[in-house]
Structure prediction request, 157 residues.
Amino acid sequence: MFAIGDKIVYPMHGAGIIEEIEEKKILGESRKYYILRVPCGDMKIMIPIESSEEIGVRGIISMEEINAVIAFLGRETSEMSNNWNRRYRENMEKLKSGDIYNVAEVVRNLMRTDKEKKLSTGEKKMLSNAKQILVSEIILVKGIDQDAAIKLIHSAI
Prediction:
């Protein structure tokens, strides 16, 4: 279980800081929730504590690990399906996994694909979401602002 002030990652939403732990009654059932503040967009998210492990909530990675992820962004583009639908599904599964390397792979591959040939609207939205997830964790690990985190990603790719 995490505590107030802990920095955690919520798959598909990104990293944030637990501001509160609240008990809420929803549909007649009382449950405890982490109230997570995400640094990008100043969004707050309620995460049910009892299912947080199942959802894939994890602590943020270390400085050493984030530097390895940034180095990973500079590697060759991994093989992707030519079929847009299949590629989209595969990338969505990577994002849902919550694994930072999978998120970084989606960001890297889609950014490079976008330079070669324009992405579809769906993939542009996916790239934006994946980048936001990656940026939020970089912000919390490195203690930098959003612009600096975005520049770090772009310079690595």
Q: What stands out?
A: The longest helix spans residues 121-142. Residues 7-59 form a domain with the Thrombin, subunit H fold (CATH 2.40.10.170).
